[in-house]
Amino acid sequence: MRKHIKNNVSWVGYIDWELETFHGDDYSIMNGSSQNAYLIEEEKTVLIDTVWIPHRFEFVENLEKEIDLNKIDFIVANHAECDHSGSLTALMEKIPNTPIYCTATAVKFIEGQYGKRGWNFHVVKTGDSVEIGNGKKLIFVEMKMLHWPDSMATYLTEDNILFSNDAFGQHFAVAELFNDKADQHLLYKEAIKYYTNILNPFSMMLTKKLDELAKLNLPIDIIAPSHGAIWRDNPMQIVEKYAEWAKAYQEDQITVAYDTMWEGTQKIAHKIAYEISKQSPNTVVKVFNIAKADKNEIMTEVFKSKAIAVGSPTVSNSILSSVAGWIEFAKQLKFKNKKAGVFGCYGWSGESVKILQEKLKDAGFNVIPENIRSLWNPEETDFEKIPEFVTSLLA
Ligand code: FEO
Questions:
Q1: Which domain holds residue 68?
Q2: Is 148 in the pocket of ligand 1 (CB under 6 A)?
Q3: Whose CA is nearest to atom 1 of ligand 1?
């Protein structure tokens, strides 16, 4: 089913109400998602992107109900990842000679995934354009590393629509399609979660790309990403947010994340949270058990934080595997300008605090020397160290 976007532009994507995870199980989906594909019907008919492999037959079937597939003059593949290129195999069975406009890297990645099928690729780079009739054209802008090396965006003149692909998206099912129709709380929550867990590692490149886009001086009325809501009401709000998020973003927040074996490390976590509020009542405090809470949601809170406190008891001369895996994920997300303090209980050897400090330093955090290291269960003498620990985190 097509949905009208503006003039001769329609949405022809797939709303994935039932999706629970993305990138395998690496990204949790709480409010559905969508793969957005778009159809432009000017003198030339253009399809912008497709949808994920499992939906390829339904996608092609739906598209056939809307138009004669042979009328498609060309396809734009903004990104080779299979959630956007995955229906090409089914579609190209029907229209095998249709040109596909994409970056040189996308050709390699598409052929890498689906094999060399003799498709008619037209390689484009930043600034290249193609006339589509009625005085309109498509301009291509490479978006290298946002978030893959092959990524690009496509701009439609006159209608002033930026088809941004993954950038500015959210994993969020919005049947009403537009940002002004979406639940505003969920829209922001899903946009920042998406930024944290997918785009934050590429923040430096993003800043440069936003500057480059601004210099192109293209009027933008609509930003149409490949996931979630389409930004038509004040579309630049998400660009401004990205500019803010890309610069070592932090709010007045501290996140406490821990795992525990016999509740000792948990007790320290709760005392730390209490002390933060006592010393700095306006600071937002979040507490998570790493083994139980959703890792992408915790990371989003870490992204918003100016400091974190991470706890694990010592086990087998090391730390709990849940915490070790969690720190590895935090390292991948390349957080900048955040402090970290550590804590944990032990029974005999007690290495967890030192290991946590080393791992968090390696993950890019500014680790404070103060720590809470408790033999067996934490006692008053351990809790007495918490005010100094928190003061250092807040400083
Ligand atoms: Fe939505 Fe990078 O794919």
A1: 3-245
A2: yes
A3: 166
CA 169 to ligand 1: nearest atom: 1
Q: Would you give the DSSP letter of residue 340? A: E
Residues 6+ apart with CB under 8 A from 238: 168, 179, 191, 223, 231
pLDDT confidence tier of residue 226, bands split at 50, 70 and 90? very high
Task: Determine the atom of ligand 1 nearest the C-alpha atom of 166.
Answer: 1
Please, what sign has the CA dihedral across residues 324, 329, 334, 337?
negative
Is 23 an active-site residue?
yes
> What phi and psi values does residue 273 have, to the nearest 5 degrees?
-60, -45
State whether 230 and 348 are in the same domain: no
* 210's tokens: 């936003």
Please identify, by atom number, the ligand 1 atom nearest to the C-alpha of residue 35: 1
φ, ψ (nearest 5 deg) of residue 256:
-110, 120
pLDDT in tens, 172-212: 999 999 999 999 999 999 999 999 999 999 999 999 999 99
pLDDT reported for residue 1: 82
Residue 344 sits in the same domain as residue 361:
yes
Task: Determine whether the shortest distance from the Cβ of 150 to ligand 1 is under 6 A.
Answer: no
Tell me if 79 CB under 6 Å of ligand 1.
Answer: yes
Q: In this structure, are 193 and 301 located in the same domain?
A: no
The side-by-side arrangement of strands in the sheet containing 284-289 is 284-289, 253-258, 307-311, 339-346, 366-375
- Report the distance separating Cα 297 and Cα 191, nearest Å: 12
Q: What is the pTM of this model?
A: 0.97
Active site residue 4: no
Ligand 1 binding pocket includes 83 (Cβ within 6 Å): yes
* Burial class (CB within 10 angstroms; exposed 0-12, middle 13-18, buried 19+) of 363: buried
The mean predicted confidence, pLDDT, of the chain is: 97
CATH number, residue 295: 3.40.50.360
